């Protein structure tokens, strides 16, 4: 082989993980916000999270089901730490195995910045519109597997298997 | 003895003997009490083997430095040491008299500018050993009377008035009193008491320094009462910040901290401070601070966990057989696996040293046997080295296998250490199956072949290679993730098209086992409301909603409906009515429900 086919995968993976981490802008539309998550997934991608499949319904494909559910995770921050990939002959597809760290916002707010607190800080004009500041927990470990069209363009992810491998002892978040 | 007739007999065997005895005796006991927690860590059999020694002339450095010095220099391990606060003598135990004699020969050895002197311990210490173990017994006995296993509650209210503890002199002086709670928590920890609630009312507490170890001993603590103590500053609770992550209810009535504040602003600030310290605090002095269902939702990863996933029964059989056979041969004779690989098969291995893990000081994190072949593409950038680290075809793959340490995977004996996902390869051109396994293995032998030295440049530096070649890396446990793309062939056997192996640091706690134990914790907050097993089978969930109702509702409203069903125990028809009348606002639903619950007919409920 004259050319390294795995070369563009790194930025693709980073973009994919960034899309899962995108922050909500209080002014924007919630539906549009949710559609950013994993935008490179195909509508019919086979999705398995922590050993449980995302099951599409007649009304919602697997991608949308996933995006809606991801909306109810606290804010995340992923960091890619390792990956490797093989191009499977005759398929035009890569199989990618990656390893990453992920931390969660443990402030008790959801992704949309909604808090469960009934007692509020006295609001001042300055912090009323400011973005919620996340309180990051310790790093969790995840391992991901993807089958991706070799073009790496647009909606190209055929399957995603996302598995948490390590939960830190001081995690406030429950799994 | 001159003490005779002064007080109770037999004080040598009880903790509080010093009450009626001379000062010296009291001090000995006092010093000893603080160390009984270390005492417990020693098994019964070593207890019987211990020989007391005393060390003098050590004060040029700390006691632990001295003990470490003795261990290094004299090759004698002094355990369970303590400093006699009265005499300044460092006292401890060695294994037997022979070890003590060995130590005595070292008398005069220089340590931190002084000469150390060793003498054999006196019978005095032998008796305090007994006294210490009786302290543990007393505390154990006390715990038994104060622990209610049904509601997992530990009643530590007003401990100073406990007659049994007072008989043993636990609160005879300030310094002994200060050691009572740490000792108690240690004993409770050793007994593995599962505690959800603790009542610490009426204990004259104003600081947490006696209670620093409480979160560690009772990580599942949900309810805590400090009623009628002397807490007067929120600052003292800082040491517990984010350490009681399950604390749900705190009672702090009748403390200066609440008595002395008046303005609504100050009261509000106090609540906010406690909320910052305890992320799951819902009730403070009976007041609800947080919307609990919402809090639980916000602090729960919404995806359930399952350690094994198979797309169907066929893939279950195929994958379990494949993995069992593969790792049996991987551990015994990797050459026998080559039948699975063909000319176009690919194998590569990557190392991720930065994957998070629980530090285990007994396990080496040396990756030297893997690093030079690692195809972690975030770190290998040149095209040539990327391609060199990819093995294609039987011969190259077998060579790569031989360059990895010999291993043992306890797939059959300890299946909990592993997790598996298996699903169809998403391509119509390939009738393949993806099998991913995560878990732990142990290295049991060095690789058969040296790693290829792709990275080491040729030239003058190459003369240093032989030294590296003979370096043996320590063997240890590791975690791994391995993804096979397999294709069943016409004869019904399998071909591995792609084999991706990832090696990362060993961790004794894996996520799939950890997430399994969580439900136990979350069902405990309201033991009174815990439904019977028969009811549990019918717990409302989005999956269980009747389709005709589910299809008419947005996912958000489905979730609200399920929450209302769980909270109110209403039938689905009534719950729907409630939601519609409350504009699908969860809080409004609950308010309306509370207002009208008395007037609802019996048939409104499940």
From TrEMBL, chain A:
Pfam families: Mtr2 (PF10429)
Record protein name field: mRNA transport regulator MTR2
InterPro entries: NTF2-like_dom_sf (IPR032710), Nucl_pore_RNA_shuttling_Mtr2 (IPR019488)
Gene3D superfamilies per UniProt: 3.10.450.50
From TrEMBL, chain B:
Biased composition regions of type Polar residues, renumbered to the chain: 518-537
Keyword Repeat: yes
SMART domains associated with the record: TAP_C
Keywords: Leucine-rich repeat, mRNA transport, Nucleus, Repeat, Transport
InterPro entries to which the protein is assigned, alphabetical: LRR_dom_sf, Mex67_RRM, NTF2-like_dom_sf, NTF2_dom, Nuclear_transport_factor_2_euk, NXF1/2/3/5-like_LRR, NXF_fam, TAP_C_dom
One Pfam family cited in the UniProt record for this chain: NXF_NTF2
NTF2 domain mapped to chain residues: 318-503
GO BP field: poly(A)+ mRNA export from nucleus
Record SUPFAM superfamilies: L domain-like, NTF2-like, UBA-like
Biased composition (Low complexity): 24-34
Residue ranges of the region described as Disordered: 1-39, 451-472, 513-537
GO MF annotation terms: RNA binding
Chain ranges of the TAP-C domain: 555-606
Subcellular location: Nucleus
The keyword Mitochondrion is annotated on this UniProt entry: no
Domain of life: Eukaryota
GO cellular component annotations of the record: nucleus
Similarity field: Belongs to the NXF family.
Protein name: mRNA export factor MEX67
Naturally occurring in which organism (per UniProt): Candida verbasci
